[in-house]
Design goal:
By secondary structure, this protein is an alpha+beta fold. Helix content is 33%, strand content 28%.
């Protein structure tokens, strides 16, 4: 499984950038997000920037990753789990699941295969 990690661009160095995130600093390949500037947030996968995101989305992703880390590291007992889920996945609480647009289109066209 590959997880996207939000990182903030600190300094652009040609096709790479020095970025900081929840696990420190790293040198990130910027070929796919070449218009990112210092201060921008990018979503990184395996050392490469894939998407420029806003600070709110970066915060939500970092909260979710922190929650997953706490659960997988055994830092959360069953009594704490529900409150952790409410914080770590606040953008999903009380929201109905949604199909992605390409699946919505198939459903609307009656293609259920």
């Amino acid at each position: 499984m590959c997880l996207g990690i939000p990182m903030q661009v600190q300094e652009v160095q040609g096709t790479f950038a020095l970025c900081s995130g929840p696990h420190g600093q790293g040198r990130i390949d910027m070929l796919l997000v070449s218009d990112a500037q210092p201060g921008d947030w990018i979503l990184t996968f395996l050392g490469a920037g894939r998407e420029i995101i806003d600070a709110t989305r970066a915060h939500l992703i970092n909260e979710a990753l922190g929650g997953l880390g706490a659960v997988t590291n055994g830092e959360v007992d069953e009594a704490m789990l529900n409150s952790l889920l409410d914080v770590a996945f606040s953008d999903l609480v009380n929201r109905e699941p949604e199909l992605p647009p390409h699946l919505q289109a198939l459903l609307q066209n009656g293609d259920t295969k």
